[in-house]
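Protein: F-box domain-containing protein
Species: Rotaria sordida
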Amino acid sequence: MEYSCVQLTDLPDEILITIFKKLANIEVLYSIVGVNKRLNKIAYDFVFTNNLALLMSTLDGFVYSLHDPILDRFCLHILPEIHQKIKWLELESQSMEHILLATNYPNLCGISLYNIEPEKAIDLFTGKIFYFYSSNDRHIKSISKINL
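Structure follows.
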């Protein structure tokens, strides 16, 4: 019997996208960005960059920060490459400032915040981060619900 060896990069883009859609967007970005130009192009597609949950969640509903090496790679390398494609961010309080200050997000329409203390929310919406975004010709259209 003759064996054939098929590598991931031998598959057509359509099949790779179908496979990658089974993963979380941050897993796709963290795993394949930087491998080669073709995989970068796939990872930078709108499907994987428009909504990012930059946090870890457990099955029982607890939310945690990403591990430092993963968070650092996103903030230093991945987010600056895709910042203009991001429309929604899901963040938790421990890492949100690091993520929000990593780059500008000109097309950001919304943010989901988890585990945020009231003082941190006040600092966010009255401090340098909110001022930075609201002064960049972007206006907050509405804040539909804040639970503190």
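Remarks: Residues 120 and 126 are 10 Å apart (CA to CA).
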